[in-house]
Structure formats: C-alpha cells, structure tokens
TrEMBL record:
The chain crosses the membrane at residues 20-43, 84-110, 250-275. Pfam families: BPD_transp_1 (PF00528). Keywords: Cell membrane, Membrane, Transmembrane, Transmembrane helix, Transport. Belongs to the binding-protein-dependent transport system permease family. It is a multi-pass membrane protein. InterPro entries: BP-dependent_transpt_permease, MetI-like, MetI-like_sf. It comes from Micromonospora gifhornensis. It is found in: Cell membrane. Gene3D superfamilies: MetI-like (1.10.3720.10). This is ABC transporter permease. Residues 82-272 form the ABC transmembrane type-1 domain.
Amino acid sequence: MTAAVLTRVRRLPRLRPGRLGATVAGTVLAVAVLACLLAPVLWPLDQSAIDLSQTRLAPSAAHPAGTDDLGRDVLLRSIYGLRVSLLVGVFAALVAAVIGGAVGALAGTLGGWVDRILMRLVDTIAAMPHLLLGIFIVAMLRPSLGAVVLSVGLTHWLSTARIVRSELLSLRHRPFIDAAVSGGAGRMRVLTRHLLPHVLPRLALATTLMIPHAVWHETALSFLGLGLPPHLASLGNMINDGRGSLLAGAWWASLTPGLVLIVVTLALAALTAHWRDHLDPRVRAELQL
C-alpha cells in the first residue's frame, strides 16, 4: 500500500521553482489589489478623522496593526496608502512608456542625426540623479497626485527609449522588412504595420517592470514631504509619520506600511520577471531597468 501511495505522489504535477515563485507572487498581488478595490466599499475611511483616545494602541483584534499617534488604524491606512502608490506607479509607468516609446521609435526609425541627438539627450538626462530631478519637478509644481505622477514619469522613460530603439534597430534589416520596402511600403507603414507589432510586447514588459520602481520613487518623495498632503494616506507619509512613534515604542506605525511596500513591490517584480523570462530568456540583461 505504501508503494502505491508513493507512486501516486510521484505522479502529482510538480511546480518548477520559477513557476512556484510566480504563483506565490501572483497570489500576493491579487490579494493586495483585491484589498485596495474593496477597502472603500467595506471599510470607508475618513482620512481627516482622528481619535485621541485610541492613540498608539498596540496590535490587537480590533486593530490588527495597531493605531498611530492620532488614533487611526494603521492597517486600514496602509491599504489606502497602497492604493495611492499603485495608482501613481501605474500612471507614471504609462507616462514613461509613452515618452520613451515615442523617443525610441523616432531614434530607431529615422536614424542618422536624429538618432544621435535623441540618444545624447537620453545620456544627458540619465547622468542626473533621478531623485534629485524628481524633487526639482515636484518643487516647480503644486504638491498633488498629478505632480508626483509627472515627476516619476518624466524621470523614468530613458530605459524604455533605449529598449524600443535597440529593438527597432535589430528589426530594420530583417528580410521581411526588406521585402516590405521593396514592395513599395513607406516608412510610416513599415513602422506601424511591421515594426511596432514586434516592439509592443517588449514595451509592455518594460512598462510593467517600471511600476515597482515608480512605487518606490513615489514613496521616497512622500517620505521627504514632497508627495501628497500629509493628512492623506500614503505609504511614504505613514513611514515618515511613524518615525516619531518609534521613540515612544510604537514600532508598528512604521513597520506595517514598510512591510506592505516591500512585499507588494517584490511580488510585482517577481511576477514580471517570470513574464520576462517566459517571453524570451535571452533578453534578461536587456530589460533590466
């Protein structure tokens, strides 16, 4: 009987280590997104409300992650802060994808002096520290969600432009492109009908890989006081506010938003890396951001 059981166990489908990690990451990310979507419906939060009788309560059944120095539930505010961070990350990645895709397409399609000028522009911006450049952009605008999205998007399109340009340069001399040109296809038709369909999967992958980076960038700006208004739930704001509670022994005020930030961004990065390897294992180094 033991041999029969062992035989059945061996016949069970096994998950490869990479697939197992992607499954775990996908589950974590699905739970996080579901919590962000259901939180406003199931647990409405008045972000300006305070309760001084519930300040700095330790984690309990009523407050699983405790309360902060204004009596607000830390876990609930962390979920609302994650909503903001993911929203900023997605929209900033889309802004960067549009700018980087346009610059890379122009450089890779036109070539010549256009390519040289655009790539020198990319190199010049890349030489500047992203965080300092983002601080400068936010300082020029009124602190708001849109300002943070523009700040992150305008400082993270460089790698996307390089990826699109390199992909177009590798495709320009393929036989099917030569056949299209010989058949009378113009430059715009070749770009839209033959080149872009091959570039879009890499562009989508690069955009997804950029979301965790954008989330961390937004958190850094909020931590420095240059992101959203202090009363709004943001992971960076919460970590910054929790620094004062650490001295009073309320370690959970900073730990919970920090753990949410780390776990969700690692899950998103792991899931995207699995997609990248499944797309083409040969481009791992190329698509590193």
